[in-house]
Amino acid sequence: MRVIPNLNALRMFEATARYQSFARAADELCVTHSAVYKQITALEEKLDVRLFKRVKKRIFLTPQGSEYALRVRAALQRLGRDTEELVARGHLTSSIEIAVPLSFGVELLVPKLPEFCKKHPDIQVHLSVRNRPFLFSSTPFDGAIIFGTRAWEGTTGFTLLREGTVVPVCNEAIGESISTATDILDQPLLHLTSRLDDWERWAAANNIHGDIRVFRGLRFDQFALLTSTAIAGLGVCLAPLVLVERELAEKRLMVPIDTPMHSDRELLFIRPTQAAPSDALMAFQDWLIGAYS
Q1: Distant-in-sequence, close-in-space partners of 163: CB < 8 Å, separation ≥ 6
Q2: Phi, psi of 239 (to 5 degrees)
Q3: DSSP run (H or E) holding 271
Q4: 3-state secondary structure 205-269
Q5: For residue 181, which of 198, 197, 202 has the smallest C-alpha distance?
Q6: How much is the pLDDT for 8?
Q7: Could you tell me if 105 and 129 are in contact, meaning their C-beta atoms sit under 8 angstroms apart?
Q8: pLDDT at residue 239 above 80?
Q9: Domain limits, the chain
């Protein structure tokens, strides 16, 4: 049988342990000294563990009491946070959990999200970064934004953006040394692990032949890391123009030479077909399609 003390006793124990004083704990909790003393005594009897040593008019935590105090304090803090979140959500009609790629979230979604929040103040959107496929059935997600050529099995998808043109980008220092397409290959090439054939495809699209050595260089599992490394001057990376517009406008990145390639990849919003979508999710889906169409 589980032994679960009442919450009031735990609150009094936590305060008493913090102050190591019945009187100060009583003052904080606005109760009498005797009320605190009785609760602590009852708690020790219920647990059959001595939590405090009494030495004349002073009290000290026992080793067991000290360890228990840390756990009780953490549990009370967690309960407080959970309660605050529950109360906050209680004032909302609903909330939705959406998985997003980091690059899209930072560059394109978050700057537009205030529009949705203003239009739907009763819907709370929770975003989590996911860059790899997952099963909706084993996650809390209601929907996801993904890069790909089609929706995942068991989902329905809607196109938000097409990648379209992909170009080499680098910082200005590296760009100054590039005047031809083959000059790019003399630089360290940066790779996205999910698209390791991009440089090979780029070379074919621009009729570059020979010992290309496209698989040398640093590799990253997130697009944001890839572009940040290019900005830092550690090499050249391939990027869809739609995802680096801000960096190009701010001159943190540049296109050293006009050697584009076309990408068939799309940015898709997907949701599982096995469950009926909530009104909140449909509102978010409709807003996404309108915002990026």
Answers
A1: 147, 240, 242, 243, 263, 264, 265, 266, 267
A2: -145, 140
A3: strand 261-272
A4: HCCCCCCCCCCCCCEECCHHHHHHHHHCCCCEEEEEHHHCHHHHHCCCCECCCCCCEEEEEEEEE
A5: 202
A6: 93
A7: yes
A8: yes
A9: 7-90, 94-293
What pLDDT digit, counting tens, does each position of 250-270 carry?
999 999 999 999 998 898 999
CA 59 and chain centroid, separation? 45
**Topology classification of domain 7-90:** Arc Repressor Mutant, subunit A (1.10.10)
Task: Tell me the CATH class for 94-293.
Answer: alpha beta
- Please compute the mean of the pLDDT values over residues 189-197 and round it to a whole number: 90
List, as one string, the DSSP characters of 99-150.
EE-HHHIIIIITTTHHHHHHH-TTEEEEEEE--S---GGGS--SEEEEEESS
CA-based angle 190:265:116, to the nearest 5? Answer: 100
pLDDT in tens, 101-117: 888 888 889 999 999 99
Average pLDDT, the chain: 89
Sheet holding 123-129, edge to edge: 123-129, 94-100, 143-148, 261-272, 155-169, 237-240
Distance from C-alpha of 199 to C-alpha of 213, rounded to nearest angstrom? 9
Of 228, 147, 247, 164, which Cα lies nearest the Cα of 190? 228
Q: What does the alpha-carbon distance between residue 74 and residue 68 come to, in Å, rounded to a whole number?
A: 10
Q: What is the pLDDT of residue 1?
A: 53
Place of tokens 């049988």: 1
Q: Encode pLDDT of 6-41 as tens digits.
A: 999 999 999 999 999 999 999 999 999 999 999 999
* Paired sense of beta strands 94-100 and 123-129, if any: parallel
pLDDT at 138 over 90: no
